[in-house]
Design brief:
heterotrimer; A: 308 residues; alpha+beta; Uridine Diphospho-n-acetylenolpyruvylglucosamine Reductase, domain 2; Uridine Diphospho-n-acetylenolpyruvylglucosamine Reductase, domain 3; Enolase-like, domain 1; 3 domains; five-stranded antiparallel beta sheet; four-stranded antiparallel beta sheet; 34% helix; C: 160 residues; Ubiquitin-like (UB roll); DNA polymerase, domain 1; 2 domains; five-stranded mixed beta sheet; 5 helices; 33% helix; globular
Chain lengths: 308, 780, 160
Amino acid sequence: MTLPASAMKPAPFKYIAATSLAHALALKAQHGDDAKFLAGGQSLIPAMNFRLARPAVLIDINAIEGLAGVRSHAGAVGIGPLTRYRALQRDEALTKLYPLIGEALPHIAHPQIRNRGTIGGNLSHADPASELPAIAIALRGRFRVQAAKRERWVEAKDFFAGALTTDLQPDEMLVELELPSPKPRTGSCFMEIARRRGDFAIAGVAAMVTLDERDACAEVRLALCGVDETPVDASSAADGLIGQNLSEQALSEQALSEQAIREVAACLQKMIAPAGNVHATADYQRHVAGVLAERALSTACQRVQDGR
Amino acid sequence: MSTRTFGEPVKRNEDRKLLTGQALFVDDVELPGMLHAAFLRSQVAHARILKIDVSKALQRPGVVAAYVADDLGAYWQPGPLLVPPPPIKDIVFNKRTQVPLAKDKVRHVGEPLVIVIAESRYVAEDALDDIDVELDQLPAVVDLEQGLSDGSALVHEDVGSNVSAHVHQSKGNYAAAAAAADRIVKRRFRYEHGMSSPIETRGVVAQWNARANQMTIWDTTQAPVFVRNGLAGMLGLNERNVRVIAPFVGGGFGPKIMMFYPEEVLLPWVSMKLNRPVKWIEDRLEHFFATTQERGQIHDAEMALASDGKILGIKDVFLHDGGAYDPYGLTVPINSQCTLLGPYVVPNYDSTFTQVFTNLPIVTPYRGAGRQHGVFVMERLLDLAAHELGIDPVDIRRRNLIPPDAFPYNNEIIYQDFAPLRYDSGNYEPVLDQALEAIGYKTFKDEQAAARQQGRHLGIGIACYVEGTGIGPYEGAKVQVQSNGKVSVATGIGTQGQGHFTVFAQIAADQLGVAVSDVDVITGDTDQFYWGAGTFASRGAVVAGNAVNEASKVVRKKALKLASDLFECSEDDLVLENGRVSIVGIPQKFVKLGDLASQANPMRGAVEPGTEPGLESTQYFGPKMGATANGVHAMIVEMDPRTFELKILKYVVVHDCGTVINPMILAGQIHGGVAQGIGNAFYEKLVFDDQGQLLNASLADYLLPTALEVPRMELGHTVTKSPLNPLGIKGAGEAGAIPAGPLFAQAIEDALDLKGRGVELLEIPLSPSRLFELTRKAQR
Amino acid sequence: MDADRHEITVSVNGIHYTRHIESRLLLSDFLRHDLGLAGTHVGCEHGVCGACTVLLDGQPVRSCLMLAVQAKGHEISTVEGLAGKDGAYHPLQQAMHDHHGLQCGYCTPGILMTMTAFLDENASPSEDEIREALSGNLCRCTGYQNIVDAVMTAAMRMRG
């Protein structure tokens, strides 16, 4: 990334503190792409300080009631977009239901960032290295998106269009992340490699394994971050695991499941197109994506037994 | 209350101001009517300047002025050469120094083209967008070997090549040694050192007071006296009319002593022209280009050995990336050349280097100042030789150490202080033994095997180095007892966190029998002390510390003389402690030091010829040459054999810097140096593309180690006093940062059994991805 | 184009300030230059180094990533408010002094704000927990070891 070698104060803009969701959406409808929502600001403000982002209008949504919090309703959990990472980390009920979220949060930047950053901001920003988009896909989440006169649902897997690009239209805001109720007998594991804790992921893997009553593998969810322009749903790489016996005994005997898991990783490596960056070559990214997939899958299988 | 504080871990005088947010840093200076500067900097590495049009910027409300090179008239000139080339036979040196604003050509990304002055930094940055610049881009010189080849673009056309300097030094006869050798080990090594990245970037505030004919400059410089002298000359002012203040400075590490930065030259000129104070604070993005840095060298080195591992000779030919300009002369590569010899007997040495002009930011010393590069080559050659000869890597080092009775040891070649490299003192084997003991070297092989059984890959590294410290030219100190009994110490160097306010206070406190907290140290203000060089090259404690000692001794003598006159007794009957002079055995017969000071400045009575009023003295100390410190670092790491992630399990430093003034402050210096060494070895890499663009110009991508990457360190020390100064001290500021490279290479090779797999680590920095690529290449 | 200005009232260290400021003014610059509270330092302006850390309603945040206008109605705490009115150190300030946890002191205010808030929530932290909490603050001078020791000591003293 080459930057103009000169600026670190934001360019001028008009600031409006929205008083309600309707107010915010009306403003966004009026200004379209000339306006950006300000939630936590932990991604937007650095970009503005570098003058890489120069919105003419900044709509501060932090004062809007009802946009933060976790609600359960009819077999699903809804998370408001203004819910801060810190609140998610401390929500024991939530992280118990979705351990992938709890396991990924410590990898997101640092405590000061997590005190302000929001899940809605993270998902809307769609950084290719971001963990939560991949996890939303692994969990089969869907997003409620609202405009002034319109509301629609988008599956997580359809939301991320490219690097820093989502399905959001110029007049829309992400207003809810909905996660389906977790299935019983499910174990999950999130693992990431970064140069330092909290840095952008060189590769991250979210793995979730569900067994049926006879310990046969019923479903595997696999999603990766950091290895492509968007999060990658690599669940089909694990098709060969479906029906396999993944009981405690089978795992302790290791041989069959180790080979099966290695095949999943090898298949997954073919499904991603990492570009490499200043910290890692594309081949290294692909290599560690495979290693993490093996390790995360194994751990997820072990954890089914612990009820995790 | 004891007054013997020398050698004690005395807590710091300066802490309160820093802990309560009351310390003045340059950006804290607020002056009525102050304007703000921003720079338009080149976004390409090499180009001819066709046009710069600032007219639109001048129309923006809030913009007061915008200047280009031509606006400076005769004031525009290339900066001075700070360090001339040393007196070495047949040396080639092409002096090309940086300019205040680019004229005709830009030679690195970030070189300033325009300075904009506005009511706020925000508006000044807005105005940068208004400036119309046309550049004719040229191919950039980035690769060192390509830069020296025929047909390469030229950074300075009038030089005719990209050779900034060429130096050959030798001692003995390497060719003969090689002919007689049982083994020659030859490799190409690449070593890159990175950016200092202090948490405080640079900054300058200039305030011209036309009525008082006084220019006051606040500057994050490590060398306020030189900056004052140079700027006075440039501005056509008397030195006495210029005051440079280096207040609290948030980390220096070397690049803040480089001068004259364009911003240092321009801000005072602007202030005079506009008759208003002006401030410029470097932002972090600018810091990547506008402040000097270190970068890389390529060494083709060989070592000739006997079969028992004794070094017969070393030959080294290396290229050094100097950047677009060479104001600092050859300090960095000379340090590499000299420090390569290390604590070992090297009877024959032939070393040649070429300093290359590149279209990259200027290279000047950053903590270690080129020593790292030399130490890497030596330590790696020893490891490679050990492996080939079947000798333990520690044994091969031990066999070659300079014995303790060989000092002063003459290495003959010329060092950065222009004198032949002589080690003044040293006792190396105990340092090595202490380090081996502390890291558990004897039992490690068993631990390693046991860990491997559990699938864990542990490895160990040991590295030795010698560090030249405490060089001249000199420093001075003025010590003065005030009427209230407090002691004032002023010296010309600047301070960036090394604890000068405490260490110098300890020295004075011991001589004068006062509490350390009653000694007020002033540094970095040219109005308070006129003379000096600066804080660099691990010399502050040695040189300024000794000056403080000399001045304190004189004041002590004066105090005793005055008191002996007062009590009509011999000076031998007096004791100076707890802030008073009293007669031995009769504590009730005393006079307070402050009262003695008052009495020395009488309202009546003459000061006799040959005497001075007051209890004060100014003394200078100039060491004949540098004092040589040394150390050994040892480290145990654990590697993930598949992802190549690294975790440091144990880190030991044993260091000898002679007499220790404050062990707590010394330990802090070592900790900080090691952290920077870890960054250098495994995290920090400046990634330039082939057009000279820096691809990781942010702290998100230029990776400074955090509390999770820097381990707990165990420190030990031995004391071999330097005979070169009365206090017997040697410098310690850079020691922690020097040997990390070879340490990591050795430990990683050991953990992953790379030698057995045909992989050699001959480069720094390393990273998990790089290790993956290197091991893959070897498997082919 | 006229600058977009707003009137804000902010409470900083318990004192209310009312100012008329431009919307793009960063909270870090507002504290330092508009309010003259220069103890909060600026190191990077892109949210990495942590030198600018202040407390927003008791939680550590990076003041370079907030607009001053967003602080309206909130309580900000800076390093100037840490010590008692009589100058008595907060236990962490005292421990940092005792353990030589600062050298140049530039990163120190940010570390003090981060770690005092951390200690308020973690009375008995382990070394690993301390290092993790500290990982969002860069220090180039100390190598962190003495800072970790200072936090340990402060925790112990605060537990009584």
